[in-house]
Amino acid sequence: MVQYQGIVACSGGPDSMALLAKLCYKKVIVAHVNYHKRDTADRDEQIVRNFCDQHHLPLFVYAPKQEKAGNFQSWARQVRYDFFVDLALKYHIDTIYVAHQKDDLLETYFFQKQRHMLCETYGLKVESMYKGIRICRPLLGLSKKECMQYCLDHGIPFGIDESNLKDDYTRNQIRHSLVDTLSEDQKEEWLHTIEKENREWNKKREQISLFLDTWDQSVDSLSDWLFLEEWLFRCTQKRFSKRECMDLMKQLQSDTLIDLGDYDLESYHKKLYLQKKKNPVFIQLTSLKYGQYEGFSIEKTGRKIEGITLYPEDFPLTIRSVQAGDKIEMVWGTKKIHRIFIDRKIPRILRKNWLVVENSKKRIIFVPKIGCDVQHFSVKPNAFMIQ
User: Fold this and answer.
1) 337 within 8 A of 328, measured Cβ to Cβ
2) Less CB within 10 Å around the terminal CB: N or C of the chain?
3) Does 177 appear as a known binding residue?
4) If you average pLDDT over residues 91-115, what whole number do you get?
5) What is this enzyme's EC (predicted)?
6) 11 among annotated binding-site residues
7) Average pLDDT of the chain?
8) Is 15 annotated among the ligand-binding residues?
9) Is 267 annotated as a binding-site member?
């Protein structure tokens, strides 16, 4: 198998054709995505095909269809990069080359600022990672005008995406009203500003990182919304705006459980807890089988609190998520499990994923970290459940 040096993402526009022309003498694969959203889409695909045929380059074309309504630009970017990554994994390639240039860097920066976005880097980096694959941007030192001139000087064909001439998308509006109005000197000034801002932001992030490395998750020690944002990003890989974080900090001053989409965030007794949402667990066992299960394990040995003596008549066992009204009979009497949670000051966010063991008679006989009921206690338990 040929060992390729990279994948060149090529739309057929002047930027990506300039990039392809510069890299066509390497052992590269060319990837083109045709969304069939405009009349000239097939023309651009043909430009790429002709160039690849002329230079004997392997070309892969993907024509995705957006099944659900939503933000086209966001969807298009994701399917495009996922296509590139799939090719990279298939052909054991570690680098994807994309044709972002200087104007794209400025456009991205203005877009980020307009949206009040928090980013690891403002603008664009020469190199970044996407799903474990390196994304390389060799043209960031060139302007869009210079890329087009390179194509004209070297007789490299290209197509103009007419949708970029309209103001249908925010990025297009920024490009036309801001970036295109700047002189080359002004662009350089902005690039220096962005570079300085990134240096300062990296220093700030280092301070935040040092704080979070030893943070005890206490609400009172969060003196700045940036600390909360960086912690949330570490846990969820999702960025939150300043406004969102400021609002969260107000809510977190008292005990509360907050829905963050895929995650739950809770402030409980001045401590913060964050947990990814899980589907309810419901597993049935027809006999005692030691091993690892979804969210728990059954072992032959363990701590006293984890032990239970199971009898043949207990089966089939049901291991499920705790429900309202569940109760267990302990040596000190029968009590609702949620009351035990409250007495032991267990945060609600942890209770949501707590499991119980129910026997064939629909009786709760064990709760992890709480213990077994009176009928299933012995000095020599035959099972230990660990959650």
Assistant:
1) yes
2) N
3) no
4) 96
5) 6.3.4.19
6) yes
7) 95
8) yes
9) no
